[in-house]
Amino acid sequence: MITRETKLNAVIGFPLDHTLSPALHNQIYQDNGLDVALLAFANPDAKALVDSIRALSIGLTAVTMPHKLAVIPYMDEVDEMARKIKAVNTIVNRDGKLYGYNTDISGVRRALATTELKDKNVLLIGAGGVARTIACQIEISGGRALYLNRTLADARILADEFGGQAVKSANKLKAEDIDVVINATPVGMYPNVDQSPLSENLLRANQTVMDVIYNPIQTKLLRQAQTAGAKTVFGLEMFVGQALEQVKLWQGKEVLDRNYIKFLEALI
């Protein structure tokens, strides 16, 4: 129950019609006895949103598309990993000073915990903020990244910064040359659930296929992968992992995972 003592947290982005951040965070707060409510603030103006964080003394802010890069100039301090990735998805307000972090990488590590990346060919689709995080993790893990993006120049930027190579077209690829596929684009997200970012002829058994999208839980890409006999990784794994890390940074202590994937599955 919200009272005069209830503190305010936020998720910012544009649009936010289908975000599950309020549901997940508020359940985490309830489970940990925190008198806090997280609300969604949708606005295309990143600076206006950051100004609101200061004005309203918002403690923790989750940042989503398209503001992960745009908020960086307005931070007082930015964590080393967030600077490397050039994406902030978490803002912690400590006594009026705003600290920017990237917890998406914790979510990626959780989602790929049982997937070997070292010396593997990893096809990464997309070149936005989430793709940059995944590209960083591929580099850290010793994988060989193949970047596929509708704008080749953006794929080349990832290759320059994190290693690997940009691919001009999916037609240049063969299924047998790909060990891991990761979709970091919104293609296939609700309501466009019949779309897939990749042709099924590039999927095969013994691959691992991950989609960062969590609504729907099983995207068309993941259905195609299952049909091909590939191992699939759902976006909810990453989503829950990054949220738990956000609360940990804000509270300064570990937060238990109380089967939040099952909780979210019931909402989708």
Automatic annotation (TrEMBL):
Enzyme class: oxidoreductase
Binding of shikimate, residues: 19-21, 64, 89, 104, 214, 242
InterPro entries the UniProt entry points to: Aminoacid_DH-like_N_sf, NAD(P)-bd_dom_sf, Shikimate_DH, Shikimate_DH-bd_N, Shikimate_DH_fam, Shikm_DH/Glu-tRNA_Rdtase
Key words of the record: Amino-acid biosynthesis, Aromatic amino acid biosynthesis, NADP, Oxidoreductase
Quaternary structure annotation from Swiss-Prot or TrEMBL: Homodimer.
Catalytic residues (positions): 68 (proton acceptor)
Family: Belongs to the shikimate dehydrogenase family.
Keyword NADP in annotation: yes
Pathway as given in its UniProt record: Metabolic intermediate biosynthesis; chorismate biosynthesis; chorismate from D-erythrose 4-phosphate and phosphoenolpyruvate: step 4/7
Entry EC no(s): 1.1.1.25
Database matches in PANTHER family: BIFUNCTIONAL 3-DEHYDROQUINATE DEHYDRATASE_SHIKIMATE DEHYDROGENASE, CHLOROPLASTIC, SHIKIMATE DEHYDROGENASE
GO terms of molecular function: NADP binding; shikimate 3-dehydrogenase (NADP+) activity
Species for this entry: Candidatus Magasanikbacteria bacterium CG10_big_fil_rev_8_21_14_0_10_40_10
Superkingdom assignment: Bacteria
GO biological process, one term: shikimate metabolic process
Record-annotated membrane-spanning stretches: none
Start and end residues of each Shikimate dehydrogenase substrate binding N-terminal domain: 11-91
Protein name per its UniProtKB record: Shikimate dehydrogenase (NADP(+))
Matches recorded under Pfam families: Shikimate_DH (PF01488), Shikimate_dh_N (PF08501)
CDD domains per record: NAD_bind_Shikimate_DH
Function: Involved in the biosynthesis of the chorismate, which leads to the biosynthesis of aromatic amino acids. Catalyzes the reversible NADPH linked reduction of 3-dehydroshikimate (DHSA) to yield shikimate (SA).
Binding site for NADP(+): 80, 126-130, 212, 235
Reactions accelerated catalytically: shikimate + NADP(+) = 3-dehydroshikimate + NADPH + H(+)
Quinate/shikimate 5-dehydrogenase/glutamyl-tRNA reductase domain: residues covered: 115-185
